[in-house]
Design a protein that fits this description.
4-stranded antiparallel β-sheet; 191 residues; 4 helices; 11 strands; alpha+beta; 35% strand
């Protein structure tokens, strides 16, 4: 919640879903600027350095949004149990995708937020609703971004104690569970 536009902020977007309920936001990824607002959802599938800021907010109509971090193990498990449609050839894999927010996904997110008022039920119901969100993401327009090629999950992996310079982009196969490092980061050692 913000009552005024913000200055651009450099940050890392992790595997997760972002939704704006009111106001507008701008995300800059490299040289591309993307504006998004109500009735849109943003899915990030790998850790991305972005510059983002709220572009429309006021005391009368504050910016309202939420971010839901997704667990890669849960995504892999749920995806392996689903009968996923074959991806279209034009589904290019990007680290971030923006799609219209469908009513069923919005309903699940509203129920998840409503659990904040029910702390005794939240530990039992929140994981179930989070699973529903993942299922809806996989089955919906974000599915090709979450499952490039239809049978693997793309994510960023950093071991404990490593820096972002040591992170790797990994593909986790749904069929055999095998992981392949796709983009190892090679740092140059400074003397």
């Amino acid at each position: 919640r913000r009552a005024a536009p913000t200055e651009p902020l450099h940050c890392i977007y992790n595997l997760g879903l972002g939704v704006v309920a009111q106001g507008d936001k701008q995300v800059q990824l490299g040289s591309e600027s993307i504006d998004y607002g109500p009735a849109q959802s943003m899915l990030t599938t790998i850790d991305l350095p972005v510059v983002s800021h709220i572009t429309r907010a006021s005391a009368r109509e504050p910016f309202l949004g939420m971010g839901l971090t997704l667990d890669v193990r849960s995504v892999v498990q749920i995806a392996s149990e689903m009968d996923m449609p074959q991806p279209r050839r034009d589904d290019a894999c990007r680290g971030v995708s923006f799609e219209p927010l469908d009513a069923a996904l919005l309903d699940a997110l509203v129920r998840l937020v409503a659990l904040l008022d029910e702390p005794k039920l939240a530990p039992r119901l929140a994981p179930l609703i989070q699973q529903e969100v993942v299922i809806r993401l996989l089955a919906g327009p974000h599915g090709p971004q979450l499952l490039p090629g239809g049978r693997a999950v793309l994510f960023t992996l950093a071991q404990a104690g490593e820096t972002w310079d040591d992170a790797r982009i990994v593909v986790q196969s749904l069929d055999g569970g095998a992981r392949r490092v796709r983009v190892p980061v090679r740092r140059s050692k400074q003397p």
